[in-house]
Amino acid sequence: MKVFTEKEAEGFLKKYGFDIVKTKFVQSEKELIKINFDFPVVMKVSSKKIIHKTKVNGIIKGIKNKKQVLNAFRKLMKIKNAEGVLIQRQVKGKEFLLGLKKTPEFDYVIGFGKGGSKVEKEKKVDFRICGVKGVKDLTKNRRIKKLLLKLCNLSTLGIESLDINPLILEKDKPVIVDAQIVFE
User: What is the total count of domains within the chain?
Assistant: First the structure.
C-alpha cells in the first residue's frame, strides 16, 4: 500500500487533466519569504503521517498578509510529523466530495456529496457503481459529471481509494482544493 501526500495526489490528478488550485509547498522560512502571495490564502500542514489535517488543527484559512503567513507557518510546523506547509489561494464556492473506492462486492464505486470539513458528521454522500449509469443521476452539473467519469477511468491504475474533499465550484468551474490517494 502506498499513500500519496496531498501534494503528490494533486500532482497525480493534474497529470490526468483535473483542475487543481495553485499550490506552493514550503519547508522553511527562507523559502516562504521568496513567495509572492495572492491574498487571502489558506495554509495546511503536509505530511504522509497526517491523514486528517482538521483533527490536528492543521488548516488555517483567511490569511491576509505576510505577517499572518509567517505566524501560520510557524504554528503548522510545530505539529507533530509536519514535513512542510502547503499554501493555496483561498477558493470560495460550493464544496463537494468526490471519491473512488475499490470494494470486494462491487469492484469500484464512486462517491459524491456535500464536501468540506463536516462531511463525516453530516454523511451526505451517495455511492454508485463506477460507470456512466452510476454517475448519471448523482448530479445535474455537467462539469462535475465529467469529473466523476474521469475518476471512474482512474480505476485501472491500482487505486484502492481516492478522496477529493473539497472540490469547490467557483463561478461554475470545479477546482480541487484537497485530495488523498491510496494505492494497492
Answer: 2
